[in-house]
Amino acid sequence: RFLSFLFLNRVVAVYGTLSDLLSVASSKLGIKATSVYNGKGGLIDDIALIRDDDVLFVCEGEPFIDPQTDSKPPEGLLGFHTDWLTLNVGGRYFTTTRSTLVNKEPDSMLAHMFKDKGVWGNKQDHRGAFLIDRSPEYFEPILNYLRHGQLIVNDGINLLGVLEEARFFGIDSLIEHLEVAIKNSQPPEDHSPISRKEFVRFLLATPTKSELRCQGLNFSGADLSRLDLRYINFKMANLSRCNLAHANLCCANLERADLSGSVLDCANLQGVKMLCSNAEGASLKLCNFEDPSGLKANLEGANLKGVDMEGSQMTGINLRVATLKNAKLKNCNLRGATLAGTDLENCDLSGCDLQEANLRGSNVKGAIFEEMLTPLHMSQSVR
User: Which residue positions does the secretion signal occupy (predicted)?
Assistant: First the structure.
């Protein structure tokens, strides 16, 4: 049923394809050869798997029977090429050697699975192939990597799937190769600022009742002047050097946003949330922070160094522990404002209305208070 070329002293040169080999075997051995097996019963499905001096067996379609148990081969062939084995991975057969699975990554799961013969016990199919319940599509690149050390993945194969298999089998060096390959295959991130045209198109496509979230987006240098930006969430967005003059930012969330160098002259900032925002060097002249309904603007902890807020309406505004060093607040309405712990060093507060303002613990070193509409009382505990 099985005939070795060496048993009949037939040495055949192997060229071309597997079909050519079967044709030669049929002619030389006088049978109709349909399958070729290695010495361990592994099905050869690619001629590239055949090495010089391999012992090959051919059959006419019947199941493989180990010649060492069925009929005793010549003495010199006992134990010959026992390193070969076949894996049944998810229904697909792979023929390889034990040393391929063990030598390159000796600490991997595959190495531990096949380091000692017989470790799998009865986990073999009817053809003697070792059963592995994993994806053959993702296993093939892993096996090839263990063969020649190169990561080669055919088109259409998801690298993330191969990476998951590499992690499952513990092929550490391949994991590094795959992570680099996946990173290089990703399109470059676009950090370019959003233009006015793009943003207006975005605004028009959004239903008026929907919450518009622009958290962390880059608007640096954009012209957003005179736009209706009410209730939009700009938390942690980059709005540096933006033109927001005459924009309606009523109840907008600008928490931790970067507004440095921006122009917000005459903007509507009623009920705005600017906690811990950075507006250093920005222009906020003639802005309206005063909400008739009583909703107070919150700029607690904001960086307002050097801002120009001249003539702004800020009744009841919360500027607690904000930094206003060198800021211009001339003629501002700060009636009832919370300025506790605020740094007002070298601020120009001339002409301001500070009636009922809370200046407890604030730093007014070098501040200008000339022509104040309301006298500053020492009971307000400024420093």
Answer: 1-16
